Amino acid sequence: MFRKALMYSFASKYVTLIIQIASTLILARILTPEHIGLFTVAAALTGIAQMFRDFGISEYIIKERDSSYSTLSTAFTASILIAWPIAFLMMAITPLIGSFYEQDEAGWLVFILSFNMFLSPFGSIAMAVMRKNMNYKPISFANVGNTMVNALASIIFAYYDFGAYSLAFASVLGTITTVSIITLYKGSDISFGVQFKGTRRVFDFGKNVGGSNIFNYIANNILEIFIAKAITLDTLGLYSRGRSTITLFEIGIIDAVKPLISPYFAQSVNKKSLQEAYLTCTKIILYFSIPFTIIVTSLNESILYILYGEQWLDAGKYLSLLAGLYCIYTITLFYEQVLTVTNNDKLYMKFKVSLSLFRLILGSTIFVLPLEQVLISFYCIASSRLLWVIWSLRKLISLSITNYIKTLLKPIVASIGVTIFVTLYKYQQESLFEWQLFLYLLLAGLSWLSVIYLIDKPVINIVLGKQAK
Asked: Would you give the DSSP letter of residue 251?
């Protein structure tokens, strides 16, 4: 079941990735950094509200043993009670947002994006049950449908000079598509209505898991909110473009795997099996994240030129720093899932809040320091997270630092060939883009696959859905 879910999840993510790259190639040549900056700050603000909307309800459904009408109705009601008042509040304060940023468009973009919160509860409950049952076929269809509608709508609106509004209108249309497809596929076994009884239990669970997610989201996106005020929308657009390039990797690899991890870890019967599952998943992710980081940091300007055009080259300095940060993060990517399946909700909250406070403090220095220096300071957060996780997992699942280091070694060795071919290309490179780049990347990829096959064939068997011999 896990492998089938993994297949659907990966397939949908790669289809959406291709669509997003194609639409990005077009939109980056129509929209300006200021347009992207406007939408980024609006999306960051409504994203905070969206986190309040979920409030850990999806995790609550996955954690509950049954998916009865009563359980789902309680979760649905709790979702409505949170989402709709917040949506109305966001719409009410749109003039204040426009005034704060001295851009009326920022407020109106928040107003439009708030409609997503009215729609989301109608799809999120069924999606959580499907995730719990590892039924990723309808979720995959919904993700692809959302991406196709979003991409097509944003291109059409952008072509007709709607600017930043293009992305906002497309986002709402994408949400409508997701809810429609999930509703079509949910079937009679997933049913729910309005039931106030038991909502307090959902809220109690959400105080820890949902509360930590909210705080973490604010900390992760506060820099965008600060940049728009402290520097310029153009700078925010460039930073956002660097971050969105990292997001392409998240969509293609991380987002395809991460939703499957909590149910997969939950099947572990003891500490040893959970430790093995954690190390295996971490190693698979590192096989992708390390070479990705090497390529992005070494060829950042070439990548930006190919994907977005010459007007985005100044994003290169941000892209390299963000790629390094993300690579460190992937070393501990699945720690939160371990906390969830081991019922360490309070530790989960403590962990998230501590690092988020650290990030908020460092992020606020954007008012006195250049953006590059602020991003460099974020490496302190990444290092702190790594040390915390190593210490915590030793207690939770008896994971020694020696085993953790062994997990890192093979992905590092597999990336040596990537480093060599990227360095060779960079050495002979005479312009931002040359067709030889694709040849060197192909050779780097073949080298990477060959080394993995030689030193860690069981990982290839797992990814392909075969039993390791």
From this structure: I
pLDDT tens digits for range 154-167: 999 999 999 999 99
Q: Give how many domains the chain has, as a whole number.
A: 2
Question: pLDDT at position 468, please?
Answer: 44
Asked which of 197, 218, 242 is the last residue of a domain, the reply is 197
Q: Which two tokens stand for residue 420?
A: 């060599």
Asked whether residue 203 is domain-assigned, the answer is no
Asked if the structure places residue 216 within a domain, the reply is no
> Which residues, other chains included, contact 377 with Cβ-Cβ below 8 Å and sequence gap of 6+?
362, 365, 369
CA–CA separation, 137 vs 139, rounded Å? 5
Cβ–Cβ under 8 Å, residues 68 and 194? no
Q: Are residues 159 and 254 in the same domain?
A: no
For residue 1, the model assigns a pLDDT of: 58
Cα 255 to Cα 339: distance, rounded to the nearest angstrom = 19
Identify whether residues 96 and 179 lie together within a single domain: yes
Query: What's the confidence (pLDDT) of residue 75?
Result: 84
Say if 356 falls within a structural domain. Answer: yes
- Residues near 66 by beta carbon (within 8 Å), at least 6 away in sequence: none
What's the CA gap between 35 and 162, in Å, rounded?
Answer: 10
**What crossing angle do the helices spanning 2-27 and 300-308 adopt, rounded to 10°?**
70
Judge whether 262 and 61 are in contact, CB under 8 Å. Answer: no
In-domain check, residue 205: no
Instruction: Give tens-digit pLDDT for 294-309.
Output: 999 999 999 999 889 8
